[in-house]
Amino acid sequence: MLATSFTSLLEEAALGGAEKRYSGNIADRLDVLFSQDHLEQLESHFDCFGILAFDPVADRAIVDYLNAGTLPSDSGPRLLVIWSSSESAPAPLPLDSLDWIDIERRDLVAQELIRQLFAPKPPPALPGIAFVQRISGGDEPIYFPLMNMADEKQIRSFLRRVFEIVNAAPLDDGKAFVNHLAYKAELARMNFRRAGASSSKQWLLRTLRFAKEHASDLISAISLAV
Question: Is 37 exposed, middle or buried (0-12, 13-18, 19+ CB in 10 A)?
Fold first, then answer.
């Protein structure tokens, strides 16, 4: 399994597969890349998005799960899962080559990601995974905690159950999507928390800026076939 920067994925979607790369100040690049048109181009490749937030030191079971390389097949081709890393991946690189443990900034971005997601309400504790149908609009995210799981097998088992629910959700609109997830999670007796209406574009852009300011990045897994 390979990892690549979310910014690179957004750039590729915006350029439609062209070889050219944006240049210049990173803040200016983000303003350009996070235009409505570019976000919608990325959304045309995915039905929904997952945001995995965790501390790579305290939550080693999640790191082990990611390093095992089954995330793309577990989540399916139409769900893009994003998480923070203290190492950037502007070009695809093997996931197990990432520097997971940077004590100085190991969980700053993950905490900021969830804080922005739930603001102005108090954020839930890490680790967990949030889902939102679109990142270009005001769709409501829903968060599933991943606490008290002993190893990667438990993480994988739980995430596969959640991914199954997510991939069966209606895509008519963001409200129907999150209502389906909440209803199915309630039936399955899964803990979850709804974030309320928010601008996915705004909180994702704020978190990505925060990550860049702290020498970190938001990345995603892609299959070896990509």
Answer: exposed
